[in-house]
Amino acid sequence: MATRGGTWGYRDRFGDAFARTYFRRFGPGVVSSVGLGTYLGDPTDECDRRYRESIVEALESGINLVDTAINYRYQRSERVVGEALDRADVDRRDVVVATKGGFVPFEESRPADPSAYVRSEFLDTGLVDAADLAAGSHAMTPEFLDAMLDRSLSNLGLDTVDCYYVHNPETQLRTGGRAAVYDRLEAAFEGLERRRAAGDIGGYGVATWEAFRVPRDHEAYLSLPEVVSRARAAADSVGADDHGLIAVQLPFNVTMADAVTVEAHRHPTDERDASALEYAQAVGLDVVASATLAQGSLAASIPPAVDAELRGDTPAQRAINFARSAPGVTVALVGTSSPAHVPENVAAGTFEPLGARAFDAVFE
């Protein structure tokens, strides 16, 4: 598990090479504000090799947060992360490792008949009940998440992950109303509280695509205050002193800034609506920004009016620094499937992000 001493030691090892605000507090320690994403890429040995090389180089250059999921590249991404952690010249205690559970994972490649695979591997075995499976691919019962966490730990070759996300819980809205989904989330959190008490996870989170950055009347909306309330209830149910909900993950970039502009969550103290980032900051949740480069499109160009305000030698660096500039964002994830891009992405952290006032001015 990442520790206070390990992550601060990592910061001491690399911090002088970066701008002042590059390392930020996360849990008991600190993390780099540029993190490694592992979502994109083909399920091939060659792509595995590129990821492995990229992650090792990044870990040895000043990035100490790696994000993955059991379903990314059919479990290959988790396995490559584990291999890279074993090969890199860093200690496990220095690195924050996050993964996710929720989508049923295939094994190494897409099966010829995905429905038959899901039926034989998950429904017939009793890992998932048909009533709990949304869109034919998503579940978040405690039993399912328990099994997926165990499989993730095996894939990663680790005893503990630092943050375990419930992956895209808004998918469950396709099979039930919000009240039912909140109940399912609370049950999932109870299971994760038990795994936290057992030392299998450092904390847990919710990784979303739409849920927290859309208006209340959107079909995919979930309330962050209600999610936090359910985490508190889950902690109370298992007798924990405090809940282990530590982070949310959502898309945030120059062209997807809804997490700042859409005010759909009741502020905990001001009795007004707040954006997802403002709410998370107010209650002490870390925010991990995904899609920082919009799957590569922002590496080529950024809208000129915003680009002019940002620091960085390349469009990719300026796009990374836009995400890092948002008040409330702890880490901006960048895909690491190409070793050629690692030095450029790491170097983004040598530039100071915008201050809060300058960031707000971008939206005026």
UniProtKB/TrEMBL annotation:
NADP-dependent oxidoreductase domain residues: 34-211
Gene3D superfamilies assigned to the protein according to its UniProt record, in alphabetical order: NADP-dependent oxidoreductase domain
Domain of life: Archaea
Cited InterPro entries: AKR2_Oxidoreductase, NAD(P)_OxRdtase_dom_sf, NADP_OxRdtase_dom
Name of the protein in question: Aldo/keto reductase
Species in which this protein is naturally found: Halobellus ruber
